[in-house]
Amino acid sequence: MFNLLFLLSFSYLVDLWYYILPDITIESYTIRLALNILGIIFIAAGVSIYLRLNVVLHPVDELLQIFRLQVYRGNVVKAQITSLSIPLLGSLVFWIVSGNLYAVNVATLFSFLFMGYFIVFFDKYFFPNLKLNAQISNK
Questions:
Q1: Which strand (E) or helix (H) includes residue 59?
Q2: According to the model, what pLDDT value does residue 122 have?
Q3: Distance between CA atoms of 5 and 61, rounded to whole angstroms?
């Protein structure tokens, strides 16, 4: 039930920004790339905070948390790469089948390779007293 409420609130928040910023276009690829990377860094900061709180997680981030705690014994970098591998593999399959690749670009690769490192950075330096509110599996 909490995941459903989270997804509803998340989708309304995304829609809000869609209506607030409907006609903004940026022609410069460099500026778009820089804004994407900055956005990924901000997302990593938010994910760092709310993964440590571990109250209600987005289903994709819940998968990340499961990999982090139960498979990789706290290693969020490996967990992030593994959890993002699943949709990227899906995109690869659809690309092979259809011949068209959508919504995968340099920023996607940047996120895939570096988001975990940014989460580690923010875990260490952004609210360092905020501890992980979950148990790491000792299996």
A1: helix 59-66
A2: 95
A3: 15
Q: Residue ranges of the alpha helices (H) in the chain?
A: 2-20, 29-53, 59-66, 76-98, 106-125
Q: Does residue 75 carry a pLDDT above 90? A: yes
Tokens of 15: 């829609």
Query: For residue 139, what pLDDT is reported?
Result: 60
Question: With left for phi above 0 and alpha for psi between -120 and 50, is residue 103 left, alpha or beta?
Answer: left
Q: Is the pLDDT of residue 93 over 80?
A: yes
Round to whole Å and give the CA distance between 36 and 44. 12
pTM, entire model: 0.81
Q: What angle do CA 95, 101, 105 make, to 5 degrees?
A: 130
Cα 125 to Cα 113: distance, rounded to the nearest angstrom: 20
What phi, psi does 96 have (nearest 5°)? -65, -40
The enclosing H or E element of 45 equals helix 29-53
pLDDT at 17 over 90: no
